[in-house]
Amino acid sequence: MAAKVPQWQNYLQVIKAREGQRVECFQKAENILLIVLERVSVMDPRFIVDYSRNLEALEFALCATEDEVTMEVPLCMDADALLIQECSSDQSDSEKITHGNSQMPASCFLGIPKEGSQLEKWTKEDVFSMVDSTELSGHIVPGKILQLLKDLIVAAIVYCRRQFLIKPGELSAERLQEDAMQLPLLISSGWKMICFNIVPVVRRKQNALKFNNNWQERGFPQGSLWKVTQEADYIPASYFHWRYSTNRPILRLLQIMSTLKGYCLDSLRILDRVNHEYWREEGKNKGLTFHHLRMVLLWATHFFASPEDWGNLEGSVYRLLVILLCCLANNHLPHFLYPEQNLFQGEGADLHSLYPKVESFANNPKYFLKFHFSGAEYKTHHQIDNGFKALLHLPAEDKAYWDTAFFDMLLNKFQMYEITDSQRVSAMSNILSKTKKMVTNQS
Asked: Which architecture does CATH list for 260-442?
């Protein structure tokens, strides 16, 4: 169905040729940001300067279509002494995220106990709110911390400019006026501006993610998931509430993937560029994002765990495509670490028109593997028969289909199934027979 396309490697080479430049841009802008954050830490030691930025640099290099990155500022505290209070039980069930035996509230309070803690620095009025409780003296308020950090950043910028540590035009703080749960700073990299979204983060080892015995660690080196989930990160969710963030463990998984052989990350690079060139609607911020695509890649790495799956560039891209098509058909992209969370939730209207575009690429990639630097008109090509789209709804009807054999069957329909493992071939054949019987009974 999908003919071999000679442009794959050339298209990838053009994308990767820019990565070195993007890393250099990131490092130049990052150096300016670090000067500001170092001054912030001098003025208020409760904020730490985290110099380990390799994860952010990797993401910025991979995501060649966006010029912004999240930068976390850790808070200096014994975070394990904090008491986690979930929001009131009358909130909807959708605000709770669960996985196996662990449960992380989508929003919560971070409380300071009345006795036995070393958190006196965090009971000051500028970051703290007292409560009437037998266990707690009060809560650390994320809205107050954001305001404090914003004021400190502004003061630090003024100081750095007066001391000629920052040159004119290198930094813009205009977007700090935005009312959001992050503090955007525009910093020059020499030839373009990069937006650093600064987020205060509380890191604690207690309540870190734990997987139950049913979770199979496939596609990653043994112990990888345990390694990346040893801390629980909390970032502002609203003025009073915090939420659990999976950004750092997801980035650490991408970093682990960068050490593996094959075309895992290259498949992400290609789809990110195609999404930017053809799938995103011009002028609209919502739609399929790099963060969606990296989650699709993690699932693909899990389901296609053999090195044999990633030895060919074209076949590697199709491993992401079959999962992406399935998620778009059902308007459901489960979070890799918390499968109960749907990353497409609330975005159905924006993603509804995307399925035929992705299907068109899967069916005729040759047209898309070009760079259009001036408004190229998008054309929809012939589509796969309706029976294929009906297959994509099976995982929503029966969770047993959310498995390797089902996606192997989809790869086979795209003529991208080149697996020699006898057990996988047998499993794929069995599920293909099962679906054929199902179709026959329904007709």
From this structure: Orthogonal Bundle (1.10)
